[in-house]
Amino acid sequence: MHPAVAGGTSAETARWRDLNHNGRLDPYEDHRLPIDRRVDDLLARMTLEEKVGTMMHGNLPATDTLGHSVTGYDLAATEKLILGSDVTSFITRISVSPDVMARQNNAVQQIAARGRLGIPVTISTDPRNHFQAVFGASTQGGGFSLWPETLGLAAIGDTALVRRFGDIARREYRAVGIHMALSPQADLATEPRWPRVTATFGSDPALVSRMAGSYVEGFQGSPTGLRPDGVATVTKHWAGYGAEPEGFDAHNYYGRFAKLDQASFRRHVAAFEGALRARTAGIMPTYAILRGVSVGGKPLEPVAAGFSRQMLTTLLRGEMKFRGLIVSDWAITNDCPAACTAPTAAQPQERAAIGTPWGVETLSKQDRFVKGIAAGIDQFGGVADSNIVIAAVKAGRITPARIEQSARRVLRLKFELGLFDAPFVDEEAAARIVGDPATQSEGQRAQRRAQVLLENRDTALPVAARGRKVWLYKVDPAVARAHGFVVVARPQDAEVAILRVDAPSEKLHPFHFFGSRQNEGRLDFRDGDPDYEAIKKAARAVPTIVAINLDRPAILTNIRDKAAALIATFGASDDAVLDVVTGRARAEGHLPFALPSSMASVERQDPASSDDSAAPLYPFGYRFKDR
């Protein structure tokens, strides 16, 4: 554990850190003073370079190029960013044990403490408490309590549970030295083929608003804003991101447009109201260029929201009265070269070719920064290009007052989080807090509650497991045996079959960095699909129970007649699924979106409208009830 650096001579000033190493208690170091007074004093001491540095939200370097190290950070490279470029906000993507993460984050803070003014680092993360792990969306590992995806929390529909989840995750994050959650995702899931459906709270604006608001309250520690022991939330992606034609995601050049009309746009905006009421600390704008929308009485300029003054200043800060931090999504000022727009097998898109400057592709990097700052961006995600912004200020393209406005928001958040007074964490306590069996079990109970029973023919469930012969597909045999089953090698030798399958998908853009990592395309099961062939094989021989993980709204029309019981999951362990199958736990969830009946109906629907495919197989809110 790292104690605060002591200074002063009286009991009143015994707890302070001599951040600027001058031997005196300066106002910004004095925890007794109001935050605004401390911010004013610090800003008066900062150079232009230091203020601009606060506007960069970089990637903590690690031993692999994507930052997903299982050992730790590249501290030499980190030192160059903090002490050389004055960057004081970073995302972490490492996946290590809690004590190691605490130790690594303390090492980052030690570097920052050596800086001229000792400004502490704000460390952010994508979600860590769920099953999905996709670069740029979520991270897994590190011993954090494991909960269903946010879709599963929406399926339960219990705002108190979401607050409880946020409270537990808050304590886990702070224990390892993480201060900011780049979540929740308040996007409305209106296009069923969209790869990012799984991290939303579903398709209903009112439900999304309630869930996102409760999420913010839990993470930040209060329904009225951020507490010093809270985790600042950055709610995303403002707004309309879920309305992607064909579900093609705006991380990719081919998915850079979203299509809405004025009425549907207002529903997408309404989904953010709960998070805004809970005073989310930050908002992240969408990558997408919105078509068909007007703001302030004028059609939107055809640029991504991070470059749109109408979206950020007129609507978000003006109409919605948001006063917090606006953090851009990652890499919006980077170039998008040929390997980004049209990658090939010979030239696939690698990390170096990631850029998302949608609508401003022809502008220079400096022009993009200038436009983003004019639109209302306070911090730029995934970059550390301070020198470009400094040059723009010196050229008179950005005023020093505008830079100070954003620096003030960044610094105020650091003070609200208590980082100037206590940036270090107890490395020994981290493992106890993150690995607490009681909180781990709460996540496991939620995995069970979040499951949705779709079909239960002839009361196939619950299954009496003891001594029952079972054929398994994608289920751990050891877990089945622990439940009392006898595992057999062939369906024809079994009394029941239990299968876990995934929603169908395709890799339509295998050479794009994100497209190769995302589930795109069709939602229906077809002959030749391994999961579908396994279902048919089992159903020909024995009563079959199918648990399908719905990361997107799958089409189950040709599955329903083959399954004696059909369960929807949204992130659940084998143990959680088998507890529901055997009646040890009850599936309490309701569908957080409708499930379409055919691909033809999906293709005809409006990507911006909720649950509007014709004749859905299962409607929004559905749960099987014994007849």
From TrEMBL:
Domain Glycoside hydrolase family 3 C-terminal residues, every copy: 488-622
Any one of the GO BP annotations: glucan catabolic process
Domain (Glycoside hydrolase family 3 N-terminal): residue spans on this chain: 76-413
Region annotation Disordered: where it falls in the sequence: 598-627
Superkingdom, natural source: Bacteria
Enzyme Commission code: 3.2.1.21
Keyword Repressor belongs to the record: no
Annotated keywords: Glycosidase, Hydrolase, Signal
Catalytic activities: Hydrolysis of terminal, non-reducing beta-D-glucosyl residues with release of beta-D-glucose
A Pfam family it matches: Glyco_hydro_3_C
Keyword Zinc: no
Gene Ontology molecular function: any one: beta-glucosidase activity
Cleaved signal peptide residues: none
Family classification: Belongs to the glycosyl hydrolase 3 family.
Full protein name: beta-glucosidase
Organism: Sphingomonas aracearum
